[in-house]
Specification:
about 700 residues; alpha+beta; 5 domains; 5-stranded antiparallel sheet; 14 strands; extended; disordered N terminus; disordered C terminus
């Protein structure tokens, strides 16, 4: 305690002693007393003896535990107080907080690992006979952890509740089950949440606000978290779904929710422990947008280099030019280290197709209050094509040059179809204005429905066009196709590598069996020897190359030999075309295709049958076609409208042609016949052979 001399110099009355009473580190009250406290004896005396007491100011700040405002009443004066310095008050409050934190037991938040381990131990104690089938504790704990990351109530919660409510179970187990259920509820409260993000206001985000997902993609935009503000977060209950969240934040807003009703372009992030899912509120339902949770490294770099927010535009505007760097170096000024620039690569050939700026302007005016920026539609189109060019450039670096022409063809197809799709989209968007522009009175609902149907169809085409980018990424990355003119040569080269590898593995194993070490093995580098020895030491010895490695490699060798034999036989085989009622079938050896040419456009039923049998329409060839092999002829045998005019099956025509090829006199027989003055008898010519290409 600290005693204060409360003498009132003006009134002349003897002052009072004021005591701050604290019990167990907590302030209880401030007392006023006319009795002096005997520090030595610990008793209260009836008459004040000031020689034995501390008066105000004699105690140092570091000699008392707490110093608070001392308030009291005088018998001759009004209420008064003796204020303290702010730094003294802060020290006292900080000391109180530290003592309270030390006195309180540390809070241990529940974790999936702790809950899973306690669940397994609880189950073993409750039903040890049943748990014999689940003896692997680590596997069971791992499965429980994964289940806790899922949405909704878990299956094991019902088990815990059953143990808790089982009156036949020991009280200790029931208490453990109740505590475990509380821990699960606490974990969900802390770790299972949903958050609502809405696009921030301002002119820089007006083209993103309330726009459906397909319109963002059609204009080259993305769901960028940099454009959003977090407006609400709450625990995610087991019964919560995206639909229930949507209903709640449209019809029954929580009192602490400050955003607008959940609308198109908003994002809801569901968090289940360490797993998060971002869902974009679209014009119909929700769409998962994993890109919302990915960090944009370019934006991170811009935030550290650009001078203001207006320059956060995807380009590092403020990086000093080479001239500026040289000037600073000459002047002795420090120059920030710049990130290394990527090497310039050759620009892939690309043709930009025309964008209908007039249609784009009309579409903007029909759906937005903002003015159309001239040239913005063309800029968006070229931006998307430029991204496709970057994809094509990267792919060319990864594949053989023989695939470059095919990549360029797909790139041009993408640019052409994208321009057609965007122009069609602008034309559709301008047909009927938005209800926000036209107003609800006499709004043409049926026309709007037709417009939306056309818009959906155009969007499907747009998704197909974007799929061309995946095709560009996959060119040259698959296996060796039978369509490749150099397929046999490539397979032969691959076979030789595998055979050499097989011989090397056998030689290394033989060296190890003979010398009991790999040191000095002529078939391996020193680095490989060290890696093998390290792996063999960890694996407990054995051969450098294990039996399964040899057998798998040998199986691949046999597979390649069989495929080479098959392709060689197929190239040597004779294939013939034929005529059918309404068209012809031709053999295109160069493209490795069987092609069907109709005299007119086939009806829908005919086209469906062809599609069901893996025939595809080729606009370039003007034919329905399928890969050329024996399976194709077996399929064609079953299609009645392709039956040859002779009435034979297509497969029978091929057999006859091959038999005729085998019966053809050899070159030696022809030379001998010419020497003897006799002409060799040519085999009977089949009419269908005239159609071979």
């Amino acid at each position: 305690m600290e005693l204060h001399d409360g003498a009132d110099n003006m009134s002349g009355y003897m002052g009072w002693y004021y005591v701050t009473l604290a019990v167990d580190g907590k302030i209880c009250t401030h007392l006023e007393t006319g009795l002096a406290h005997d520090i030595a004896s610990g008793k209260v005396s009836d008459a004040p003896t000031r020689e034995d007491y501390f008066t105000a100011g004699t105690l140092k700040e570091d000699q008392v535990d707490y110093v608070m405002n001392n308030v009291g009443f005088s018998s001759t004066s009004d209420l008064y107080s003796l204020p303290l310095n702010d730094d003294v008050r802060e020290r006292a409050e900080r000391t109180l907080a530290e003592r309270e934190a030390q006195a309180a037991p540390p809070t241990v938040e529940p974790t999936p690992e702790g809950i899973s381990a306690e669940l397994y131990d609880l189950m073993c104690a409750y039903d040890p006979e049943f748990m014999k089938d689940y003896a692997n504790r680590e596997d069971q704990i791992g499965g429980t952890i994964r289940e806790m990351q899922a949405v909704g109530p878990t299956s094991f919660e019902l088990v815990i509740v059953g143990i808790r409510d089982d009156e036949q179970a020991p009280a200790a187990l029931r208490e453990r089950a109740a505590a475990l259920m509380d821990a699960i509820d606490r974990y969900k409260e802390l770790n299972n949440t949903f958050s609502i993000y809405q696009i921030r206001g301002g002119p820089e985000t007006r083209d993103f606000r309330f726009e459906p997902y397909y319109r963002l993609l059609a204009t080259g935009r993305t769901v960028d978290p940099a454009n959003y503000d977090l407006v609400y977060t709450a625990p995610l209950r087991d019964t919560d779904t995206l639909e229930s969240i949507y209903r709640q934040f449209n019809t029954d807003h929580p009192a602490d929710f400050t955003g607008h009703s959940l609308s198109v372009s908003d994002v809801v992030v569901l968090r289940h422990g360490d797993r998060q899912e971002a869902h974009f509120c679209d014009d119909v339902g929700f769409r998962e947008v994993p890109e919302f949770l990915r960090e944009n490294p370019l934006r991170t770099a811009e935030l550290s280099t650009e001078q203001n927010e207006n320059m956060i535009d995807g380009v590092l505007n403020n990086a000093p030019s080479p001239g500026e760097v040289a000037a600073k170096e000459e002047a002795g000024e420090p120059v920030a280290e710049q990130p290394p620039q990527a090497e310039a690569t050759e620009q892939a050939p690309v043709h930009y197709y025309t964008i209908n700026e007039g249609a784009a302007r009309r579409a903007k005016e029909a759906n937005s209050f903002y003015d159309y920026q001239p040239g913005s539609a063309t800029a968006e189109y070229r931006g998307m094509v430029d991204k496709a060019v970057e994809i094509a450039q990267r792919q060319k670096k990864r594949v053989d040059p023989e695939f470059h022409d095919k990549i360029d063809q797909l790139l041009d197809t993408y640019a052409r179809l994208l321009a057609q799709n965007m122009n069609r989209g602008y034309e559709i968007a301008a047909r009927v204005p938005s209800v926000m522009i036209a107003g609800p009175a006499n709004f043409p609902v049926k026309k709007k429905q037709k417009q939306l149907a056309a818009d959906d169809k155009n969007m499907e085409e747009w998704r197909h066009i974007q799929g061309l980018l995946d095709k560009i990424r996959s060119i040259g990355m698959g296996g060796i196709s039978a369509d490749d003119p150099n397929a046999i040569e490539k397979l032969q080269a691959k076979l030789e590598k595998l055979e050499a590898q097989q011989e090397m593995m056998k030689a290394v194993n033989a060296y190890y069996r003979k010398h009991k070490t790999l040191e000095g093995c002529p078939h391996l580098s020193q680095k490989s020897i060290e890696a093998f020895q390290s792996g063999m030491a960890e694996g407990g010895g054995g051969s450098p190359f294990l039996p399964w490695q040899l057998s798998n490699n040998n199986a691949e060798i046999r597979r390649l030999k069989a495929r080479i034999e098959q392709l060689t036989r197929q190239r040597e085989n004779v294939f013939v075309g034929w005529e059918f009622d309404g068209g012809t079938v031709e053999i295109n050896r160069e493209a490795n295709r069987l092609q069907i040419f109709f005299e007119g456009k086939p009806d829908e039923a005919t086209r469906n049958i062809l599609k069901e049998n893996s025939f595809r329409w080729s606009p370039k060839a003007g034919a329905w076609q399928r890969q050329l092999n024996d399976n194709t002829f077996w399929v064609v045998d079953r299609i009645s409208f392709l039956r040859p005019l002779s009435g034979e099956k297509p497969s029978e025509l091929q057999a006859k042609a091959r038999q005729a090829q085998q019966e053809k006199p050899s070159i030696r027989a022809q030379l001998k016949a010419a020497k003897d003055g006799q002409q060799p008898k040519a085999p009977t010519k089949d009419k269908s052979q005239d159609l071979e290409v």
